[in-house]
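Standup notes, protein team

Yesterday: finished cleaning the Nocardioides humi set.
Today: Lipopolysaccharide assembly protein A domain-containing protein structure.
Blockers: none.

Input for Lipopolysaccharide assembly protein A domain-containing protein:
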Amino acid sequence: MLLLGLVVLVVGVIALVLSFFGASIDYKHRSAEILNWDVAPGTLVLWGAASTLLVVAGLWMMKVGARQSWQRRKEHKRLGELSEKLDQVELERRRSELTDDDG
């Protein structure tokens, strides 16, 4: 999810940069152009809004992915600690069985 969020964020930023700097607007004829592609000014506004939504969605996905990764690391650490405790208890049980058998 973190990687997908990064990809969506990059696509949104590229689209925003194109809409700001790659667009040329002809106010006299009420037309706009993005990379030699004629679009209506309203389409340019929608392009910018969609690009902004992509950026926000990318940031949100990255946040969710980072949170999931953090929780997974935390759980893995906790399971490692429990495993060590279980190994210690098992070792103590075996030692006590050996000492009980000898005595």
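Follow-up from PR in the comments: The beta strands are 23-26, 31-34, 37-39.
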